[in-house]
Design a protein that fits this description.
Elements (H helix, E strand, L loop, with lengths): L1 H20 L4 E6 L9 H7 L3 H4 L10 H5 L2 H12 L2 E8 L5 E12 L5 E10 L1 H23 L6 E3 L5 E4 L1 H7 L3 H4 L10 H5 L6
Antiparallel strand pairs: 1-4, 2-3, 3-4, 5-6
């Protein structure tokens, strides 16, 4: 029994060293009430707190005022306990008050008797990823506005099967179809019957 206990303690120590060495993710444990029980180097790096500043505090510390008022910290734990996992993205707050966009996973932890004893919390800073996605969406929005404003050229998109997916004002002016009439139709309708018979649309 003593050897087994020492072995278990050794494994736990090695695991804790591994967790503490991770800096790309905030990995920490919560007790069953949502209070912080452990703190790794990644958590310190992302959130700006030393372990002695946060251990014992409720993890809602890292949420925005809006999310706390909406009860999101408590709801996340309820969902994790009920469904086996909670996963989402949202704003989190650092010690200095700045915000970062986080991808968050919460897993419930149970003892051998099946009683809930806490939660494992994994947080990753994905602010740059979100900024890139926002920039792409904005670029696409501006492109659509630009295309819609062009009247001298028919500019439209077709899917891999040849069906029209969007339609600008130039296409409407030149071809005579409104977007409602043509989106979802095959582009071969712009060809003559003779050209369609010769297979021109497929070339």
């Amino acid at each position: 029994m003593a050897d087994a206990a020492r072995y278990e303690s050794l494994i736990e120590q090695r695991f804790q060293r591994l967790v503490n060495a991770v800096t790309d993710y905030a990995l920490y444990m919560l007790d069953a009430d949502g209070k912080i029980a452990t703190w790794n180097a990644g958590a310190r790096r992302f959130k700006g707190y030393e372990a002695d500043e946060v251990i014992g505090r409720h993890y809602s510390t890292f949420f925005t005022d809006e999310d706390r008022d909406a009860g999101l910290p408590e709801r996340a734990l309820r969902i994790a306990a009920a469904e086996g996992k909670f996963e989402s993205e949202g704003w989190r707050v650092r010690k200095d008050g700045t915000r970062f966009w986080a991808h968050v996973v919460v897993d419930p932890i149970y003892d051998d008797a099946g009683a809930l004893i806490g939660y494992a919390k994994i947080t990753r800073d994905v602010t740059e990823k979100r900024a890139a996605e926002d920039a792409l969406r904005e670029s696409e929005r501006r492109f659509r506005l630009l295309v819609q404003g062009v009247r001298d050229y028919a500019i439209y998109m077709i899917d891999p099967d040849g069906y029209v997916t969007n339609w600008n004002s130039g296409a409407q002016a030149i071809k005579g179809y409104s977007a409602d009439e043509i989106v979802g139709q095959h582009f071969s309708r712009f060809y003559t019957e003779e050209d369609r018979a010769r297979g021109e649309p497929a070339r």
